């Protein structure tokens, strides 16, 4: 009973009552304002008029007011200065106390971190990429050299192969022919016969649509729902089973006390090194894309319990290589040291113009600039005013050639000869410890499963042979471009007259006296110059 008597009443009211009260308050305030306006009451604050001019001792009053103002400002400044002084004193005491109690080991770690920040290396520099590539070669038991099936000989690096053969540890070298779905089947078979005379060759078609771990589940659902599945699309992968079995059998033949088999994946940029590792792993383990030079440092990926793949940055091509090799495999365009228009001009010189016209569905053209103009109009690469964007068209053209879309091929060598760093003994050593029968069966299964393009729909490309690479840090700074690599724009219309003389450095004009006797009866015939 007592608790119920002490309980306070609730202040909750209905909305209608609350709104009614607010309305009455507004009306009351409005009524008060109206009455005050009638009486002449004003809320305006009057401005201080100051000291009247007629007031006696005006100057003394103003002087006293100014002195009072200055005194107030001086007091405020002193108070602020004392506040800052106390803050600095507290900060010094705190710093001295922390220095006395801080251990020496912590100081050493801080100094080490500071020195590491100061000496950080640029991961895009050629010296760093060369050092990372050498680390991969030294740490590998087996080195896989990935070759683009469209130009296998141009993707081979003699310096890289020689360095692998000369390293200690009896390292094995294996060639993987990637992107075979972009080359005619007859051309692939000829290249297998040519390359397997030196090293074992595995045919491979990497998957270019691996995103995450859920891809496997999605693929299984598609196979379950559709009885017929086109395995040649970008998500399919061929050759991974054969390569996995070869590496597994080689790892099983090793001694039990040895660690897992370390396999280094090397090659020039955009041959498909990271895509091969992703296809072997089944998930997106390494960054891969159309842009060249994405991989900057070595990365280890476990694909099996006893097999480990090591991704590596691309081999740096030497500037002494032909311009066609540099346009496809160097990073000069990405680094801004070469124009993309120059790279396209170089590539067009190595192809048949008729096949280029059929592939890109453009009319006849005289030079690379005219081709890029037609190509830009075809793709819709236009600037303001409808001007064709030739630079964007050149970038798209170069992406087709370095990516995994365009089909082109190079003819295999008819007369094969071993390079200087190879011998019959080395070839026999490289063939040992591999299950060659299993390799042959795996390549046959890959050839039967992949959908190859027709010979007529593939562009014939003239290869410039093996591409020289830089493996030593000292070679990067000392290497200078050769005269072949720094080719000028001498031949503007190279499709009309490809054998024009070189462009002179300076044009000199010389006056020549003309002594011709003309008579009034001579008439000029326009047909001599304008036909």
TrEMBL record:
It comes from the Eukaryota. One of its GO terms (molecular function) is GTP binding. Transmembrane segments: none annotated. Residues 57-105 have a biased composition (Basic and acidic residues). Residues 9-46 have a biased composition (Basic residues). It holds the Pfam family GN3L_Grn1. Keywords: Coiled coil, GTP-binding, Nucleotide-binding, Nucleus. It is found in: Nucleus, Nucleolus. Residues 130-318 form the CP-type G domain. PROSITE patterns: G_CP. InterPro entries: G_CP_dom (IPR030378), Gnl3_N_dom (IPR014813), GTP-bd (IPR006073), GTP-bd_ortho_bundle_sf (IPR023179), P-loop_NTPase (IPR027417), TRAFAC_YlqF/YawG_RiboMat (IPR050755). This is Guanine nucleotide-binding protein-like 3. It comes from Dicentrarchus labrax. The lineage of its organism: Eukaryota, Metazoa, Chordata, Craniata, Vertebrata.
